[in-house]
Amino acid sequence: MKCRFCDNELNDIFLSLGSSPLSNSYLTREQLLKMEPYYPLKVYVCNKCFLVQLEEFESPQHIFNDYAYFSSYSDTWLKHAKDYAAKMIKLFNINNQSTVIEIASNDGYLLQYFIQRGIPVLGIEPAANVAKVAKEKGIPTETVFFGLHAAKELVKKGKYADLIVGNNVLAHVPNLNDFIKGLKFLLKPKGIITLEFPHLMRLIEGIQFDTIYHEHFSYFSLLTLEKVFDKYGLTVFDVEELSTHGGSLRIYVRHQDDNTRTITERIYDLKDRETKFGLMDINFYTSFGEKVNAVKLDMLNFLIKVKKEGKSIVGYGAPAKGNTLINYCGIKTDFLDYTVDKNPHKQGRYLPGSHIPIESPEKIKKTKPDYVFILPWNLKDEIMEQMNFVRDWNCKFVIPIPMLKVI
Questions:
Q1: Same domain, 132 and 212
Q2: By C-alpha distance, which of 125, 82, 83, 121 is closest to 100?
Q3: Residue 182: φ, ψ to 5°
Q4: Which member of 7, 24, 28, 105 lies 3.0 to 4.6 Å from 123 by CB, making a disulfide possible if both were Cys?
Q5: In terms of Cα–Cα distance, which of 155, 325, 184 is closest to 253?
Q6: Exposure class string for 200-217: b at 16+ Cβ within 10 A, else e
Q7: Do residues 237 and 262 make contact, with C-beta atoms less than 8 angstroms apart?
Q8: Residue 72 confidence (pLDDT) above 80
Q9: pLDDT reported for residue 76
């Protein structure tokens, strides 16, 4: 296997999580009777560019053919999107003469806030079922996988971007070089790209191994991404550290020959901290597996203890990250009776691998469990506030990452 950025041969393993099905391949009752494909979940790190990455087992076309993730079901994420739109409009003078293009625009969760200000937008969303929802909201959306070819087709139609947005899409891109070429081609000479993605340093620091799954092909540090953009004539000129998804980065990118925006001190500061943390040392990466195994053992010890006491545990949420955690730890209905999710597209289905049923949140009121195991732990505050009624029967919340906590 070769590095998807620099083509270097990959020999160093960052983490091995066994084998599991695709994290977003939620099952119907009929599919429970059929063979379920499993793939190795082994993560490599390149000893040349330090890109952390998975091997590609399934094409994006297969993974995102019928996608079950809809961004608008999280109030926290909607607020994040609304705040982002307001900030970009003010910071870069985005107005009704501008064009905002979002890559992986999902159900229009973000672009709606630009439309409300009268700003022209275009969504690029490969999952047809999700794009359909966006179009029904009145958000112009192209159903296509983004890369250089797609960018050229858009430009033929007169679509150039003043602002390109990519929230939690970069990790989903198997052909990283083609994707970056597409961004450059689509961007106006004075345009801006912003990309948000989980920060590799926070993943390691918080032992967030559950953010690793087959749909995420790569895991990024600023140090590595700077090299990627530099190769294609783009400059990362600013960075923000965000709390989303357990710790993310938002990078700001421009053409290299656009000298109107200088590189900020935040770039130099974060690169220095990443280097001191160990992200340029290949030996640093190899110890991560021991920490992950310790989290697994603590989690299983807790679940076994609770079940021996005759207590009941249910899950909250059916996120992709939850499926990595559940399958790696071997958690099935012997531990979690069921899980619930606000997304009706997931309700009535079953988690891949574990076959834990997904119900409506209303079921928790009926069964009154002793513990609610929060799978999307990055949204724990929103979920605990939303589900505060479980305190009426002394139910407790379980937060699995970075170390198991019962609240």
A1: yes
A2: 121
A3: -65, -40
A4: 105
A5: 184
A6: bbbbbebbbbbbbbbbbb
A7: yes
A8: no
A9: 81
